[in-house]
């Protein structure tokens, strides 16, 4: 469920060197060690106390809000700081001293102080949960109170503080104003459920005010749970009931106790390092042993007393810290999740940089969201607090079957998804991981941290994450996030469940303004397709096929059917509702539910329920509300998986994951994806033996594999490398045999080119002596129209021969690519040609400068020497002119062949101005009176074919008349024939009408009247970018 993410970060208590924001006498004292830390009830604040000072930390954003330093006088009179007691609303806390005094501190919001919140618009990105910032607070000392009997420990309630006294063991109730409530104070010896030996002082106490449960451990090492029942009468204001959970022995005393209110479990740590878990009944009158938590530190190491324990807020994870031995983390039913274990000898510890909490833990607690664990070590030299980050599985929040099938991990700011389609190969990192890290948008996390719900669709391509408000959707295919608008996002919050149905998101939500509860269905564009109002909040939700099961907070189980209709619409129907309050037990303990379809059975409704670790089957017989059967399969189960019918030939069954009763040791080996190619070695063996037929028959079996060509390249490379040290022709050399063998394959030219480019240049002479010269191979590629292979030989040719040869073949290859309309290859060749000419030009410049310097040095001895100056620019200008003529002639060729679409693509990819060229051609042809060979009919027809346009219909003039606006009729004389204007008559006489040869058009298919081209689009160059 939880996985550690990297090493721990440190919270420094020290003042930065050179800073001047506090006086010298307030600076951190190196001899002042941290003695305790305690979070507030909502985990938003934490108080860290040293022997003579205290710090108020904000956990999100992570910073120190206030610091209080005690004077030397109070340290001598009241004693040094020991522990902290918080008020549930975080407005006050009490610091206990080693002399039993209570120091009351108020946490006040400072209105005119430094505002730590951010402006609505700022130029930096806020961290997770840091958008609202933190208002400046002030920690004010309120009073000091001394209890004559001394105080050993205490817990905070809403209206009062419960203190455990030292001298006369009792439970003292004290108001937050400092007034002692003598009426509620009770001595331990007066409690009926305690015997005489159990009246020793209480040294550790915890409370759950919501259910009114107290738990404590006394000096004798016994653990108790108790409740205080309230009455309305005046004769008695409270009655204590309880029972002993754990009886300590001489060698094993209880040292710490913690209650899990969600799963009704009590965790008790003892002085031997064990943690014993007990299950408590719903009425808190029965306690049964559940399981025991132990770790193995090795044969030469042993644990000490349990120093600190803390459950996560959802009760699924328990963190335990020992006085000596580090820490460990378990799931709710005893699966070891994490352990600080050192696999080094004691002599190596001094030279290793190991965190101090590996050797002992004084305090620890989970932050809000359980993404971070704050740890204080027992080391006297420790000056900082460690914060260990964790990744969470979706099972950490909901143990539903949808979360079991998804391979994702949720971090504080990211989501890790496993990519099963990858082959695990990476040329840089051989230990490549299949996990892809996806950063959640910072704008969403800044206001909606932490992530509370995560759901992945069945294909693993769509991920939905939900925080405090709204949710965000990620598409793995295009690597894009989709978010709601700010107003829509803040209008609702996911409360109860988030799951996928096909490509639709089903979310149980709560409207923020009206506090109404709904089930909403969204598509991938975050458009709400359906809204179903529900009377109560949804506790949990699951899906099986077309059935969605919802458990409400009033213990009503609702069964819905969902169906995807056409036009992106959803049919969501309520089928049945049943009350299961007396079946599943406490609602907060329900972990998962699953509906089972049984169409051919008399039992029409079957539900698998996982509650408090108890896996059971609930079935209603004949659809009756009263006739049902409850079958318990197993206990201490954390999650389960139910197979669909006919899945891989399996019958309908389910697998449960829980605590194992059988323990065994497995050797774990790190698996690395790797492969070794052997085909080339086998072929080399066959060819060296003269068995060419056998080699060809063998390699033909692998022709469909993607590494087939690579195997042949490796064969050629190994033979060249082996024979390169000898002369060209040696008796017994197999290179000619290998070349003859490779010529049987159609990709022979590719094999030679790839092998040459991946081999050292010193091997080329031997290679091309046998296979042929690069010029001949390049010409063969041109004849066979292998342009991509020809470019590889052009690079080889440029390395071996003179630049003039490379320029000539580059022109020939460019001409061939233009003839074949391979515009991408032509673009790369054009870039190669220009860079080659720039290299030639720079070479001319360097040689000319060197020649001039030599002439200048010999001018004194032989003044009659004359230097014939040749301009290097003239050579490049001539080549540029040839290139421009080549491209211009090809443009004229495309235009003469009526290839308008190809001309547009040619101009765009080769960065040529099409509009300027067409204008110049129009002017040139207008000046040539003999140019009347343009075939308009064929140009019309072929343009429609190139751009996939439909042809106009054949219709009469009477079928296409413009609708005139309505006008009032007027009487006109009979036989009235209006004459056309004189300008129209003159123009008709001057210009003869344009006649088209429709014989070439009528044979083509008929299309709509709207399929026409605008003449202005020919002159607009940007239109050809769209045509491409």
Could you characterize what this model shows?
The chain is an alpha+beta fold and 1028 residues long. Among the domains are: 2-14 and 33-117 and 131-287 and 295-392, YVTN repeat-like/Quinoprotein amine dehydrogenase (Methylamine Dehydrogenase, Chain H); 394-623, Lipocalin, CATH 2.40.128; 898-951 and 998-1028, no CATH class. Helix content is 24%, strand content 31%. It is built from 22 helices and 50 strands. The strands form 13 sheets. Strands 1, 2, 27, 28 and 29 form a 5-stranded antiparallel sheet that branches. Strands 3-4-5-6 form a 4-stranded antiparallel sheet, with no helix packed on it. Strand 19 and strand 20 (265-270) form a beta hairpin. The chain starts with a strand and ends with a helix. The relative contact order is 0.04.
Largest sheet: 5 strands, antiparallel
The CATH topology of one domain is Methylamine Dehydrogenase, Chain H
CATH hierarchy, class of one domain: Mainly Beta
Unreliable runs: 231-237, 423-432, 851-872, 954-972, 987-1028
Total beta-strand segments: 50
CATH architecture call of one domain: 7 Propeller
User: What's the end-to-end separation, in Å?
Assistant: 52 Å
User: Roughly how much helix do the residues carry, as a percent range?
Assistant: 10-25%
Mean of the pLDDT scores?
79
Radius of gyration computed on alpha carbons: 42 Å
CATH superfamily of one domain: YVTN repeat-like/Quinoprotein amine dehydrogenase
What structural category do the secondary elements indicate? Answer: alpha+beta
Shape: elongated
Count of separate DSSP helical elements? 22
What is the percentage of strand-forming residues?
25-35%
Subcellular location: Membrane
Keywords: Membrane
Main location: membrane
Organism: Rhizoclosmatium globosum
């Amino acid at each position: 469920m939880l996985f550690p993410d990297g090493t721990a970060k440190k919270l420094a208590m020290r003042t930065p060197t050179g800073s001047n924001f506090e006086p010298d006498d307030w600076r951190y004292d190196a001899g002042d060690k941290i003695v305790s830390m305690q979070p507030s009830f909502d985990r938003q604040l934490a108080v860290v106390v040293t022997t003579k000072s205290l710090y108020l930390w904000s956990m999100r954003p992570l910073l120190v809000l206030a610091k209080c330093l005690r004077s030397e006088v109070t340290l001598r009179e009241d004693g040094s700081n020991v522990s902290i007691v918080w008020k549930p609303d975080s407005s006050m806390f009490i610091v206990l001293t080693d002399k039993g005094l209570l120091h009351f501190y108020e946490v006040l919001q400072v209105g005119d102080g430094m505002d730590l919140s951010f402006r609505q618009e700022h130029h930096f990105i806020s961290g997770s949960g840091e958008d609202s910032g933190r208002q400046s607070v002030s920690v004010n000392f309120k009073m000091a109170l001394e209890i004559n009997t001394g105080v050993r420990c205490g817990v905070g309630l809403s209206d009062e503080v419960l203190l455990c006294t030292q001298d006369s063991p009792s439970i003292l109730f004290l108001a937050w104003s400092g007034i002692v409530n003598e009426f509620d104070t009770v001595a331990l010896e007066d409690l009926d459920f305690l015997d005489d030996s159990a009246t020793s002082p209480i040294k550790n106490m915890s409370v759950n005010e919501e259910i009114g449960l107290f738990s404590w451990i006394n000096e004798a090492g016994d653990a108790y749970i108790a409740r205080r029942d309230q009455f309305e009468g005046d004769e008695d204001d409270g009655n204590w009931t309880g029972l002993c959970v754990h009886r300590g022995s001489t060698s094993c005393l209880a040292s710490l106790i913690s209650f899990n209110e969600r799963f009704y479990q009590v965790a008790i740590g003892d002085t031997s390092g064990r943690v014993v878990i007990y299950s408590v009944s719903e009425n808190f009158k029965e306690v049964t042993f559940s399981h025991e938590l132990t770790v193995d530190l090795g044969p030469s190491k042993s644990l000490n007393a349990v120093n600190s324990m803390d459950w996560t807020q959802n009760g699924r994870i328990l963190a335990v810290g020992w006085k000596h031995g580090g820490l460990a983390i378990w799931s709710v039913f005893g699966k070891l999740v994490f352990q600080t274990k050192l696999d080094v000898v004691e002599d190596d510890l001094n030279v290793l940089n190991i965190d101090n909490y590996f050797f002992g833990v004084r305090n620890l607690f989970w932050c809000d969201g359980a993404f971070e664990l704050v740890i204080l070590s027992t080391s006297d030299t420790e000056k900082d607090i460690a914060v260990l980050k964790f990744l969470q599985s979706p099972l950490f929040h909901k143990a539903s079957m949808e979360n079991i099938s998804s391979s994702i991990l949720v971090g504080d700011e990211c989501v890790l998804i496993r990519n099963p389609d990858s082959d695990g190969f990476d040329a840089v990192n051989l230990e490549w991981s299949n996990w892809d890290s996806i950063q959640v948008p910072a704008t969403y996390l800044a206001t909606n941290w932490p992530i509370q719900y995560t759901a992945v669709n069945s294909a693993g391509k769509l991920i939905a994450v939900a925080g405090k408000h709204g949710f965000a959707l990620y598409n793995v295919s295009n690597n894009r996030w989709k978010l709601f608008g700010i107003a829509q996002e803040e209008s609702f919050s996911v409360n109860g469940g988030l799951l996928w149905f096909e490509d639709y998101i089903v979310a149980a939500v709560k409207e923020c303004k009206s506090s109404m509860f709904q089930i909403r269905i969204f598509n991938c564009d975050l458009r709400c397709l359906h809204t179903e109002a529900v009377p109560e909040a949804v506790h949990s939700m699951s899906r099986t096929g077309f059935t969605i099961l919802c458990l409400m907070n009033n213990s009503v189980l609702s069964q819905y059917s969902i169906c995807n209709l056409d036009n992106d619409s959803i049919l969501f129907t309520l089928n049945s509702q049943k009350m299961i309050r007396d079946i599943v037990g406490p609602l907060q303990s329900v972990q998962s539910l699953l509906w089972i379809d049984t169409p051919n059975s008399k039992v029409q409704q079957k539900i698998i329920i996982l509650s408090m670790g108890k896996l059971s089957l609930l079935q209603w017989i004949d659809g009756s509300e009263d006739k049902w059967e409850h079958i318990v399969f197993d206990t201490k189960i954390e999650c389960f998986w139910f197979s669909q019918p006919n899945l891989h030939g399996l019958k309908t069954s389910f697998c449960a994951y829980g605590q194992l009763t059988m323990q065994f040791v497995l050797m774990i080996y790190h698996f690395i994806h790797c492969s070794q190619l052997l085909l080339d070695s086998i072929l080399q063996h066959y060819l060296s033996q003269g068995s060419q037929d056998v080699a060809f028959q063998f390699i033909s079996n692998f022709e469909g594999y993607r590494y087939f060509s690579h195997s042949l390249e490796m064969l050629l490379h190994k033979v060249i490398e082996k024979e390169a040290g000898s002369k060209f022709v040696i008796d017994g050399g197999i290179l000619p045999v290998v070349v003859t063998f490779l010529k049987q394959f159609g990709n022979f030219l590719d094999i030679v080119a790839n092998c040459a480019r991946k081999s050292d240049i010193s091997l080329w002479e031997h290679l091309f002596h046998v296979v042929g010269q690069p010029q001949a191979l390049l010409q063969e590629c041109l004849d066979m129209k292998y342009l991509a292979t020809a470019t590889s030989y052009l690079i080889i040719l440029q390395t071996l021969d003179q630049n003039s040869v490379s320029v000539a073949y580059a022109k020939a290859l460019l001409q061939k690519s233009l003839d074949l309309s391979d515009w991408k290859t032509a673009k790369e060749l054009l870039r190669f040609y220009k860079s080659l000419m720039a290299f030639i030009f720079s070479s001319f410049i360097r040689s000319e400068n060197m020649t001039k310097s030599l002439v200048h040095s010999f001018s004194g001895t032989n003044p009659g020497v004359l230097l014939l100056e040749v301009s290097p620019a003239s050579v490049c200008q001539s080549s540029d002119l040839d290139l421009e003529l080549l491209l211009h002639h090809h443009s004229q060729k495309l235009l003469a062949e009526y290839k308008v679409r190809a001309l547009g693509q040619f101009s765009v990819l080769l960065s040529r101005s099409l509009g300027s060229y067409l204008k110049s051609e129009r002017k040139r042809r207008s000046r040539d009176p003999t140019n009347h060979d343009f075939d308009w009919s064929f140009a019309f027809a072929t343009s429609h074919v190139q751009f996939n346009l439909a042809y106009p219909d054949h219709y009469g003039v009477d079928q296409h008349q413009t609708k005139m606006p309505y006008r009032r009729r007027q009487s006109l004389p009979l036989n009235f024939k209006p004459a056309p204007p004189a300008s129209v008559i003159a123009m008709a006489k001057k210009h003869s009408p344009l006649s088209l040869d429709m014989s070439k058009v009528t044979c083509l298919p008929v299309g709509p009247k709207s399929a026409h081209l605008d003449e202005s689009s020919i002159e607009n160059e940007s239109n050809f970018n769209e045509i491409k």
